[in-house]
Amino acid sequence: MSYRKERKKKLALIIVLTTLAILIFTVVFVALLLSDKEKLRKEGIKEYKAGHYEEAIKLFKESLAENQLFSEKMDLDTRMYLGTAQLKLHQYNEAEKTFIRVHKDNDGTLDDNKIDTFLGIAQSMKGYGDYQPETIIPDLQRAVDGGNYSALIYLASCYYATGDNEEMIKAYEEAITHLGMSTYIAYQLSSYYLRVDDLDTAIAYINDGLNCDDDMFTDKLLYNQVVYYEKILDYKNAFELMNELYKSDESNEEFRAEYDYLYTRVNINPNPVHVIEEEEEEEK
């Protein structure tokens, strides 16, 4: 076999192998571009918006488990949904881990203050009752002084547990300054002001909370709105709002009790029972 023929054979082999390598790379590359990741994410969001948080969490995790190139931004937003669904189901340990990961992966796409707020809620609710609040307040204050503003939410809950309402309010107000208003903070402050009958301040926080772009504690804020109208003796508005809220979650015993109470307030018979009985006797 001549040198020229041998060279041609080697060249042909190289071309075949290169073509195969390119083909394999293309197949793998396309496979990594195409997956069920986006479909699973969309289904998860649909379940989330319907209030089916357990199913949503399952779908979000399946979406995140799918390998797909250039999906970092999608995964970041999916994790944000996952964390909020975990908060909705009081899975605070899991939510804390999720929001820590979101914070780490965030490239500026998401609002850091919003992530901090949700992380603070998870840490606050996770740790609530686990420690003597007096013992951890100094550590939380040092964390805040060091720039960890998500700790303000846990700090506020500790002050509430100790009965120091003045410091609780200051901590929440500082959280608003650094993190912005959230439905959680609005709910906590409006609940406090409803308890002390400062109704003007309570309804202001309720309205601020209902204008937030998160829905974490929207149902609780709507309930506080009902309580506000009840306290100012506007039973008609209170009942109308409670009727809508009760329809959204008929399994909620607190909603049912409030609905039943307000129903009696807006359906009071103007004539007492004994008056009706006397009128019936006169007719006889």
Description:
With 284 residues, the protein is mainly α. It is built from 15 helices and no strands. It starts with a helix and ends with a helix.
Please sum up the structure shown.
With 284 residues, the protein is mainly α. It has helices at 3-33, 37-49, 53-65, 72-88, 92-105, 112-127, 133-145, 151-162, 165-179, 183-195, 199-210, 218-231, 235-248, 253-266, 273-283. The N and C termini lie far apart (131 Å).
Task: Supply database-style keywords.
single chain, 284 residues, mainly alpha, 78% helix
SSE run: HHHHHHHHHHHHHHH
Give the class from helix and strand content and strand pairing: mainly alpha
The stretches of 5 or more residues where confidence is low (pLDDT under 50) are: 25-34, 272-279
Q: What portion of residues belong to β-strands?
A: under 5%
Q: Distance between termini? A: 131 Å
Rounded mean pLDDT score: 86
Helical segment tally? 15
| Secondary structure tally: strands | 0
Shape: elongated
Helix content: over 70%
Main pleated sheet = none
Rg, nearest Å = 29 Å
Helices and strands, with pairings:
Blueprint: H1 3-33, H2 37-49, H3 53-65, H4 72-88, H5 92-105, H6 112-127, H7 133-145, H8 151-162, H9 165-179, H10 183-195, H11 199-210, H12 218-231, H13 235-248, H14 253-266, H15 273-283
Helix pairs in contact: 2-3, 2-4, 3-4, 4-5, 4-6, 5-6, 6-8, 7-8, 8-9, 10-11, 10-12, 11-12, 12-13, 13-14
